[in-house]
Write a structure and sequence with these properties.
DNA-binding, 159 residues, alpha+beta, 5 helices, homodimer, Arc Repressor Mutant, subunit A, three-stranded mixed sheet, Dna Ligase, domain 1, three-stranded antiparallel sheet
Chain lengths: 159, 159
DNA sequence: GTCAGTGCAAAGGTTTTGCAATTTA
DNA sequence: TAAATTGCAAAACCTTTGCACTGAC
């Protein structure tokens, strides 16, 4: 169960229920694999690649294939329950969607790969202002800051 | 010839000269293909995929291969003369680097694919502030706003 | 003449897809 | 039982790379 507190009201969204509703509304059938994949993904609640998810799902049920993970994550993305990120132009990383957690942006260490999530309301407001200025109706945005984290334990790439 | 006006001083950077200097400093040889590719890329000065660049280069010199375009764009990226963008997780789009044009962010129409470039100093400042707050030394950032452009001529995707 | 650059095609990595078999409702 | 889902492997897609040949210095 995830709680969203947007400062005005509190909504409770259960991702598994949301997924089931979405499937029902779209003439889709549920399956053992989809439930397993969704469970491990929402339980971990962190940035996971398809292979991470596959590995975790197989610990619960060894009969899950990579293709099904790809298909299920696409489904969850369509629901708005998951979002794909491409920080490094390699494998996509999935994280829980805005409707479950708070929207946030990312700060990524170019040496150790550490990812910090943050929100800054001033930036959110400026983004809307800029979109409006150019006649756009904003639907989504992506902001990623890259730098060196300065952590003493930071291991440079290649170590 | 590209002019950079950063508000304090004005520098003139010729990309072809910069590329030649870079190659000389790195024990590389120039070639007919590299000059052709660089010429068409800097002349167009817009977002171009590798295939766009290949097509344009072949109109000048039919003996240019895709592999050489990839290799040359990588070289130009290392020089800072070009930057790769991945707006849609498909083919990369290249644009001229910050040292040639002003740094800018992007507003992308999700219906017609139109790309608007913009700069907002307030956002630039906030980004640095946020990175500092989390102990990061900012090296680079990426901000993309997605929405509907509201243009009457906007053709929805798939048309 | 030497060594870097090229073109080609093959290989690489990630994601999608066709299809027969299976599972769900 | 009909229709959607699965697993497998092949294909698709973008990009990189090995190698013999070409071309720049």
């Amino acid at each position: 169960m995830v709680v969203i507190d947007n400062g005005e009201s509190v909504a409770r969204v259960d991702p598994i229920t949301t997924m089931r509703n979405y499937m029902a509304q779209h003439g889709m059938k549920n399956s053992r694999q989809r439930e397993t994949i969704a469970e491990v993904f929402f339980e971990a609640a962190r940035h996971m690649s398809v292979d991470d998810i596959l590995e975790a799902a197989r610990q619960v049920d060894s009969r899950v294939s990579q293709a099904t993970v790809y298909r299920t994550m696409k489904l969850l993305t369509e629901c708005g329950l998951a979002e794909a990120r491409h920080f490094n132009d390699g494998q996509a990383l999935y994280e829980v969607g805005d409707i479950l957690g708070h929207h946030h942006d990312h700060l990524i260490c170019i040496d150790c790969g550490k990812i910090v999530e943050f929100v800054d309301e001033r930036i959110e407001e400026l983004q809307t202002e800029i979109a409006t200025k150019y006649g756009f109706e904003l639907t989504q945005h992506r902001m990623e800051l890259y730098g060196r984290c300065g952590d003493p334990q930071c291991r440079e790439r290649g170590n």
